[in-house]
Amino acid sequence: MNAERLDSFREFVDTRSSALLKTAVLLCGGDQHAGEDLLQTALVKAAGRWQRIDEPEAVSVAEPPEAGTGVADAAAAAELRLVMREALSRLTARQRTVLVLRYFEDLPEADVARLLGCTVGTVRSTTHRSLARLRSLAPELAALGPADAERRSAPDYAPVEVRP
Predict the structure, then answer these.
(1) Between the CA atoms of 120, 134, 142 and 76, what dihedral angle is there, to the nearest 10 degrees?
(2) How far is CA 26 from the centre of its chain?
(3) Considering just the CA atoms, what is the radius of gyration of the chain in Å?
(4) What is the torsional sign of CA 83, 87, 35, 66?
(5) Please, what sign has the CA dihedral across residues 10, 11, 16, 17?
């Protein structure tokens, strides 16, 4: 690898390693050490092929929603992360991968299918089954969502029927 490509690779690793590690940990079901190993292995493979990689940022990363400012919001967010991490760790590796790529990385179904070497229909069915399993493993996730918390705290909340 020439000096220019080496600098390019180092810059990529410096700027993206934190986000890549978060994704790797999610893919490993929340296991930090396994995520670090996965990232290291992926970066070693990428380094060997760096001269042939035209767009290292071809996989886009979704922007996280703005964090709440209250202590209750921070506590609920931390609890949600813990529950989600535990539930994800109980999925199969393929189910976890599909959910992370679809919802954490915000990739379209076609891109997930291409990355996993399967059809869009397989991605759809795997996503459906994975979400159903996630809901059965952690039904408390619905109770921790910010929209539900807002509805529970609103004293005059009542469903409204909309007619055409």
Answers:
(1) -110
(2) 6
(3) 19
(4) negative
(5) positive
Asked whether the beta carbons of 35 and 19 are under 8 A apart, the reply is no
What is the DSSP annotation of 99-141?
HIIIIIS---HHHHHHHHTS-HHHHHHHHHHHHHHHHHH-THH
In the block, residue with structure tokens 């934190």: 18
For the stretch 34-89, pLDDT in tens is 889 988 888 888 888 888 877 776 554 444 444 444 556 777 777 777 888 888 88
Question: Cα 15 vs. chain centroid, distance in angstroms?
Answer: 18
- Is 0.70 surpassed by the pTM of this model? no
Rounded Cα gap, residues 53 and 140, in angstroms? 42
